[in-house]
Design brief:
By secondary structure, this protein is α+β, with helices and mostly antiparallel strands. About 35% of the residues lie in helices and about 10% in strands. A five-stranded mixed sheet has the order 5-4-1-6-7, sandwiched between helices. Strands 8-11-12-13 form a four-stranded antiparallel sheet. Helix 3 runs antiparallel to helix 4, helix 7 runs antiparallel to helix 8 and helix 7 packs across helix 9.
Length: about 625
């Protein structure tokens, strides 16, 4: 302990003007349960020593953190990261590194059983020993594009060239990558992908710098510039459902997002959508865009004696000409759901608008929508029982926690939606300091009416939300018998003989709702509607395509058994295998099946060695004299 004291002194921090109290508080809620306890004790030990004057012996007794670990954390905390910021309380995280990993151990020789693990950093070590390989790989990075981006060159062809270059550089067959089963194929692919992402980020940053140097023209009329972003509501919510016995049960859910669409010139909220889960996806984003141009539908009034202000509302409610009017530029951040191909294609092709992603990690570039989220926090989510606060140590969490853990004191999802719609509607009708003395709604409507503005409009064919948000694909109708026809979709055969009998062997267009693939709509290539097709009984429960993918992946990796039992059985088996919490189960079920809990049948029998082959159903056979 004496050596540790020589290495570090609290007076050193004072001399260097390091304000420990101003370090950002570390949010550990996202950590796994097995890591959370250990990180929390390390964090408390660090705070107790630096802020509260606790001694090393007190910390060892109370938090079970040794003096050597404590001083190592402090030494790391006063270092700076790549952004020039102090590491601070992030030093309490396990295995936190400031730089990338660099392998020092040498790779073993070849053997009859090539190694399949313990190769961390070996590819980087190879590039360090043979820097000419980096120069050879650099042109491949420029040629590489993912399939979604129109790429044609496969990574396998790069691997063959890579092995030839390794031989030229003198790498023998007893050395890496030749002494490994995959010959470094996966490591090369990951390296090329990482370099391609870094190159794309550099190009975006260069473009952003060029745009910053140009004259910035501010929006001068409604719908010239629109900002879109998502915000996780800091609220604990519940859902109430009747089970199979007719009894009402209450379930707590987590992670509700609001995706907001707001006009920059008038600060008027055009529309929004709610999304469940750890994050929102492209369909949730498209729903928010659709609801910003469609007539506003108020949620069912479930909170008694609460009314909307007359001055409030949404633009489409006050002026009929604004219904289905689309914006010119939609500004979003660089979230994965925002970059989805289906999103920017529909915004550009259906709305006739431009998507502006802006520079990464620059929230101030969308300051209008970020300011509204601050308003929402101050005036809604942090004033309701069950608020989760700004961070894990926020005192408001205790003050607004339901007494005795009574879930009936929390808002239901429907009550929250009703209250949120009123808050947003009233915000639109309240005078805004940035556009004083007008309110956002008044400025939007008066400017549109008095200036006689004309707006682009969404085509009537896409006024239905399913036509706007659903996905489509071209597939071929196949047959496995004289009186059968089916479509393969996500590893399941969809059938309906009357709808498909005239299209066997031909390509048709299928359309589906990403949150309900219990049926598909089928059209000819000319656009004529043929009908709907349905999966076998085990997949007949409404469920999302993401749930189907997850279950199929779990079957493939042996986590659950594929059987003819219901989807609910497979989903519960997956959740038990991964030890999900109750709130995660309720949230996931509600998002991907439409119900927080699903009835589960009796334990399934032993599964067959292979997935059972679907058989022709009687309902698919049409009446025919030759088959009476």
């Amino acid at each position: 302990m004496s050596d540790a004291k020589k290495r570090f002194s609290k007076f050193q921090l004072i001399r260097e003007s390091v304000d420990v109290a101003s370090w950002p508080v570390l949010n550990i809620e996202a950590l796994a349960d097995e890591k959370k306890e250990r990180v929390e004790s390390r964090l408390k030990a660090l705070q107790a020593y630096l802020l509260h004057g606790a001694t090393v012996l007190e910390i060892e007794e109370k938090y079970k953190v040794s003096s050597s670990s404590l001083f190592k954390m402090i030494e790391r905390a006063i270092l700076t990261d790549s952004d020039g910021e102090l590491v601070g309380f992030r030093a309490a995280l396990l295995n936190y590194r400031l730089g990338s990993y660099s392998r020092k151990a040498q790779v073993g020789d070849a053997s009859s059983e090539p190694a399949t693990n313990g190769d961390a950093g070996v590819f980087g070590q190879l590039l360090t020993q043979h820097p000419q390989l980096v120069e050879k790989i650099r042109p491949w990075v420029k040629q590489y594009k993912p399939r979604a981006g129109g790429g044609e060159k496969r990574l396998a062809s790069f691997h063959d060239l890579f092995l030839k270059e390794c031989r030229k550089q003198g790498v023998t067959t007893s050395e890496y990558p030749f002494n490994r089963r995959g010959k470094g194929k996966r490591a090369l692919a990951e390296y090329i992908k990482r370099c391609a992402r870094e190159r794309a980020n550099e190009q975006r940053e260069d473009l952003a710098k060029q745009l910053e140097e140009q004259i910035c023209i501010r929006a001068s009329a409604p719908l010239q510039e629109i900002q879109i972003d998502g915000h996780q509501l800091d609220l604990r919510l519940t859902v109430r459902e009747k089970d199979q016995y007719g009894l009402t049960s209450c379930y707590e859910i987590i992670c509700v997002w609001i995706i907001l669409v707001i006009d920059v010139h008038t600060r008027c909220v055009l529309g929004y959508s709610l999304a469940l889960g750890r994050n929102y996806d492209q369909t949730d984003l498209l729903k928010a865009i659709y609801r910003s141009i469609a007539p506003h539908n108020r949620p069912a009034p479930v909170i008694p004696d609460v009314m909307y202000k007359v001055e409030g509302g949404f633009p489409a409610e006050k002026m009929e000409e604004l219904v289905w009017a689309t914006g010119l530029i939609y500004k979003v951040d660089n979230a994965l759901s925002h970059h989805a191909t289906d999103v920017w294609k529909k915004v550009e092709n259906l709305l006739g608008s431009v998507v502006d992603y802006g520079p990464p990690h620059r929230p101030n570039d969308r300051a209008i929508v970020e300011a509204f989220f601050r308003f929402l926090v101050d005036n809604f989510s942090h004033r309701v029982v069950g608020s989760k606060g700004s961070h894990s140590r926020d005192q408001i969490i205790k003050r607004l926690a339901p007494k005795g853990g009574d879930l009936s004191l929390l808002l239901t999802l429907e009550e929250m939606h009703h209250a949120l719609d009123i808050v947003i509607s009233d915000y639109n009708g309240r005078p805004h300091i940035s556009i004083a003395p007008h309110s956002p709604l008044e400025l939007f409507v008066r400017t549109s009416r008095e200036l006689g503005l004309f707006f682009n409009r969404l085509d009537k064919r896409f006024h239905d939300i399913h036509a706007f948000t659903d996905k489509t694909q071209l597939v071929r109708v196949r047959s496995d018998g004289k009186l059968s026809a089916y479509i393969n979709f996500m590893h399941v055969r969809y059938r309906n003989l009357p709808a498909l009998k005239s299209s066997v062997g031909e390509e048709v267009i299928i359309q589906w709702d990403p949150y309900n693939i219990s049926y598909l709509k089928v059209y000819t290539r000319a656009g004529d509607y043929l009908g709907e097709v349905y999966p076998p009984g085990s997949w007949a429960t409404p469920h999302s395509e993401k749930l189907r993918s997850r279950l199929m992946s779990a079957v493939k990796h042996g986590q659950i058994d594929y059987s003819e039992n219901s989807l609910a059985d497979m989903l519960q088996a997956l959740q038990k295998a991964n030890n999900w919490g109750e709130r995660d189960i309720a949230t996931y079920n509600l998002k991907h099946t439409g119900a927080a809990t699903l009835p589960v049948s009796t334990p399934p029998p032993l599964p067959p060695p292979h997935p059972p082959k679907e058989r022709l159903r009687r309902s698919y056979i049409t009446k025919d004299d030759s088959h009476e």
